[in-house]
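In the design runs reported in the main text, the only information available to the sequence generator was the tokenized backbone. The following block is the verbatim input for one such run; it is reproduced so that readers can re-run the procedure and compare outputs position by position.
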């Protein structure tokens, strides 16, 4: 294979059989269960990266279970994770802290393209009689269970649509071959072409169990604030870099022994 051929085909890895297809990525009948809760602000302070900011008085976290039965290139899968309401230079949005899903394509694509913090696990979202139930299993252990009364009350669609259109922020990290950071960026992306099919709320509960490799319980549930069940079609827009940590004047290279301490 000639060098020009490599460059033409170099969209994703592996070169001759990429783990995911090129976009755009359209999702049909995407279903959310989002439970918003209050947590310990000191815990948030330790994980929200500057220059993002969060409201220490509110200290909110959104725990999400998302069912995606029809998505271009990625197929049929489910994911679950935590999104923290933040602001960036005066604009409100959400910072994705962790995500767990059961499909290799969106794990690879999400990490490589946008910087989604995705790991392999087994989330589910289903309706059981009168209850919407979301679960997350990491290996054989249950680490999250969310429940909401099924479609108790409709939610104002304009409010939900505005929330879905807010910017989303990710911390994209790709190491160099020597283990040092080659890319360390704050990425912004948006959901696009949203067709909102319905939104409902009801009584909700959320239980998180400590796990060394799926540490969702590190942001403890102190109080349930709200819950929403959403159905929508949408496109996952590609991102843009809004902050490059490696280009900041104050940065310095970590020694090998210092990098080891990070882990």
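Verbatim output:
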């Amino acid at each position: 294979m000639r060098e020009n051929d490599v460059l033409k085909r170099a969209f994703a890895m592996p070169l001759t059989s990429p783990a995911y297809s090129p976009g755009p990525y359209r999702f049909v009948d995407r279903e959310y269960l989002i439970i918003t809760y209050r947590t310990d602000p000191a815990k948030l302070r330790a994980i929200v990266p500057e220059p993002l900011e969060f409201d220490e008085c509110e200290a909110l976290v959104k725990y999400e279970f998302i069912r995606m039965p029809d998505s271009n290139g990625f197929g049929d899968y489910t994911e679950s994770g935590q999104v923290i309401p933040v602001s960036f230079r005066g604009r409100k949005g959400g910072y994705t802290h962790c995500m767990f899903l059961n499909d290799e394509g969106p794990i690879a694509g999400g990490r490589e393209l946008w910087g989604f913090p995705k790991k392999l696990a087994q989330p589910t979202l289903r309706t059981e009689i009168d209850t919407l139930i979301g679960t997350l299993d990491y290996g054989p252990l249950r680490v999250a269970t969310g429940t909401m009364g099924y479609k108790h009350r409709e939610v104002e669609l304009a409010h939900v649509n505005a929330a879905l259109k807010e910017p989303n922020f990710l911390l994209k990290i790709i190491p160099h071959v020597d283990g040092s950071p080659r890319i360390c960026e704050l990425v912004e992306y948006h959901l696009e072409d949203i067709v909102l099919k319905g939104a409902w709320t009801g009584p909700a509960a959320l239980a998180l169990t400590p796990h060394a490799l799926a540490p969702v319980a590190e942001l403890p549930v102190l109080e349930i604030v709200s819950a929403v069940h959403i159905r929508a079609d949408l496109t996952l827009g590609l991102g843009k870099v809004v902050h490059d940590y490696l280009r900041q004047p104050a940065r310095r290279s970590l020694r090998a022994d210092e990098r080891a301490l990070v882990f």
